[in-house]
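User: As part of a screening pipeline, I want to sanity-check one entry by hand. Below is the sequence and the SMILES for copper (II) ion. Please return the complex as structure tokens so I can compare it with the automated output.
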Amino acid sequence: MKLSLSSALSSVLPLVLAAVLAGALVLLLADQALTAPYSPPREELPRGPGLIQGRGVVLQVEPEKARIKIDHEPIPALNWPRMTMPFPLKDPVSARTLKKGDVVEFALEKAGSSYLISEIKKQGSTGGPQ
Ligand SMILES: [Cu+2]
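Assistant: Here is the complex for your manual check:
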């Protein structure tokens, strides 16, 4: 019984593996074909309703105040020009590794009458003096 089960498995297993691999390959190729022209070589922040994307340079991090000051690029979704402003952080831990001069992308979330950063990720560095 044990013998026949294992021999049955060993005859089916390669087929299953081949099918899984082929499936994975198809998914991989399809994904590349769909996203290749649009995906920059960096991490993407989640997009969704209520999430506004921004980009800028970190000027000051104040984890103890859950605040980060950013020189941000224009944010057309909010009709904001480029400016320097402090943002409250939803999760202060997310800014723990950030420092002055870091180029960041962030997601804004409406909180009352203002906006807080719900997610922030380093994309590079200005490389200037810290
Ligand atoms: Cu602003």
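Points to compare against the pipeline: The chain has one helix and five strands. The CA atoms of residues 9 and 16 lie 10 Å apart.
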